[in-house]
């Protein structure tokens, strides 16, 4: 089985030796060049010499998003600005954005890791790659762009939005690979259909989708609609950007972490202790090669589990399960925890529904109250007498959705059926939650 980089097939002990060496270098770098880390190490009474094995990493402090904000804009840099060639920032929903920076070497590594990811998803040198991730301060667009060029793909930097133009270029340029958020690709597919174009008739063969949580059922919908194979890409700007982990198209079961560049841990978010392999917890990453902004034990807030061992594709790198959701996005409805992606699974499973939904949160008295607004599909709507949602057929469907969510996710939600196209379409990250409790919307 072919891979883009030889490190992907290394045996575990060889990989661990490299990780240990690189971990030591990273720790020296932050201890001597980043006052924030030096202070945090000193508070825990740890010096770089105390870290002799990969397990010793547990002695080190965690980094959280707020630490990046508190050190805005450049206080976490471990190199002088003269060595920085790229700066990105993530949009802060509240307060200051988080800023990340890259040296020339960092850009090289990132390019290689993303090239590896595109290769893993089916892309090859010489392919045309249509990149519909947003360009700009967000790492998605430019991160994929860099890796796509590194692999040797003819890269189309269309960015998100302008769906008609996306469709024209897909038809005229005949790309083999498309990169996007899952919700936006769905939007492109539906817009094609409304113009009388069959999405399965295009040249596309592979999709690299990410930047928002999505379900297996959503994958099935997209693959069927376009007649393609779709793989999940994972990354976050604080750790590097897209490419931290990538699903192999051979198995489509779990994402390969770039072990030679990132050390992964999974912790219990309450006790902060490591959880055993295979069990769900919060992903924590330490960068092993980054120069401009090395990061130690970054708490991602993403819930996943990891496994080690050889994958059927031949790769030996650590695998993480598809991210269930972010701790921040987890809804607590009357004491029950639920991720929007779990609700999505039930929706995608029902033939009468379209994969478009929003969850509205409100306060009723002191209780949180959730409403699920979900679109019915065209066929159901056309057959519904008088297009009337009070008709017994619609009422029966509403009850069935409610029951299924209650039984499977253990939460009670009021369900409202919506006409086709009533839910706003995504041109980037889908807005799944509308929080009316404080009149603020939280994009996922
Ligand atoms: Zn694999």
UniProtKB/TrEMBL annotation:
The record's listing under InterPro entries reads: AMP-bd_C_sf, AMP-dep_Lig_C, AMP-dep_synth/lig_dom, ANL_N_sf, PA_CoA_lig_proteobact_actino, PA_CoA_ligase
Residues forming the AMP-dependent ligase C-terminal domain are 335-437
By its UniProt entry, which Pfam families does this protein fall under?
Answer: AMP-binding, AMP-binding_C_2
- Top-rank lineage group of the source organism: Bacteria
Q: Which keywords does UniProt give here?
A: Ligase, Nucleotide-binding
Q: Per the UniProt record, which residue ranges are transmembrane?
A: none
Q: Does the keyword Ligase apply?
A: yes
Q: Does the keyword Cytoplasm apply?
A: no
Report the EC number(s), separated by commas if there are several.
6.2.1.30
| Pathway this chain belongs to | Aromatic compound metabolism; phenylacetate degradation
**Domain AMP-dependent synthetase/ligase, which positions?**
78-286
Q: Name one GO molecular function term.
A: phenylacetate-CoA ligase activity
Q: Which reaction does it catalyse?
A: 2-phenylacetate + ATP + CoA = phenylacetyl-CoA + AMP + diphosphate
Q: What role does this protein play?
A: Catalyzes the activation of phenylacetic acid (PA) to phenylacetyl-CoA (PA-CoA).
PANTHER family in alphabetical order: BLR5969 PROTEIN
Family designation: Belongs to the phenylacetyl-CoA ligase family.
By what name is this protein known? Phenylacetate-coenzyme A ligase
Organism name: Halobacillus shinanisalinarum
Gene field: paaF
């Amino acid at each position: 089985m072919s891979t883009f980089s030889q490190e992907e097939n290394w045996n575990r002990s060889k990989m661990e030796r490299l990780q240990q060496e690189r971990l030591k270098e990273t720790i020296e770098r932050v201890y001597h060049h980043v006052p924030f880390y030096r202070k945090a190490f000193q508070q825990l009474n740890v010096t770089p010499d105390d870290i002799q094995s990969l397990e010793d990493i547990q002695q080190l402090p965690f980094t959280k998003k707020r630490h990046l904000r508190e050190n805005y804009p450049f206080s976490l840099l471990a190199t002088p600005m003269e060595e920085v060639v790229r700066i990105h920032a993530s949009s802060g929903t509240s307060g200051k954005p988080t800023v990340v920076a890259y040296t020339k070497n960092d850009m090289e590594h990132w390019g290689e890791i993303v090239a590896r990811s595109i290769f893993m998803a089916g892309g090859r040198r010489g392919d045309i790659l249509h990149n519909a991730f947003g360009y700009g301060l967000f790492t998605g667009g430019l991160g994929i762009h860099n890796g796509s060029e590194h692999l040797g793909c003819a890269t189309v930097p269309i960015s998100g939005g302008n769906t008609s133009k996306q469709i024209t270029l897909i038809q005229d340029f005949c790309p083999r690979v498309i990169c996007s958020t899952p919700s936006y690709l769905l939007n492109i597919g539906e817009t094609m259909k409304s113009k009388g174009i069959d999405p399965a008739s295009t040249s596309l063969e592979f999709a690299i989708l990410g930047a928002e949580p999505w379900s297996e059922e959503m994958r099935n919908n997209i693959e069927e609609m376009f007649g393609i194979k779709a793989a999940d890409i994972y990354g976050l700007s604080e750790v590097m950007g897209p490419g931290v982990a990538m699903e192999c198209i051979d198995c489509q079961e779990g994402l390969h972490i770039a072990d030679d560049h990132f050390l992964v841990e999974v912790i219990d978010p309450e006790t902060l202790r490591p959880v055993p392999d295979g069990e769900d917890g919060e992903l924590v990453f330490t960068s092993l090669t980054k120069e401009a902004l090395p990061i130690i034990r970054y708490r991602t807030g993403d819930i996943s589990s990891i496994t080690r061992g050889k994958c059927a594709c031949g790769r030996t790198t650590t695998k993480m399960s598809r991210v269930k959701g972010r701790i921040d996005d987890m809804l607590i409805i009357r004491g029950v925890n639920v991720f929007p992606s779990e609700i999505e699974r039930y929706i995608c499973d029902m033939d009468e529904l379209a994969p478009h939904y929003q969850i509205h949160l409100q306060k009723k008295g002191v209780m949180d109250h959730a409403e699920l607004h979900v679109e019915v599909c065209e066929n159901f709507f056309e057959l519904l007498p008088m297009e009337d949602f009070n008709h017994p057929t619609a009422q029966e469907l509403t009850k069935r959705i409610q029951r299924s969510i209650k039984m499977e996710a253990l939460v009670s939600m009021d369900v409202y059926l919506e006409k086709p196209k009533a839910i706003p379409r995504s041109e980037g990250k889908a807005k799944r939650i509308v929080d009316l409790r404080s009149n603020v919307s939280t994009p996922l």
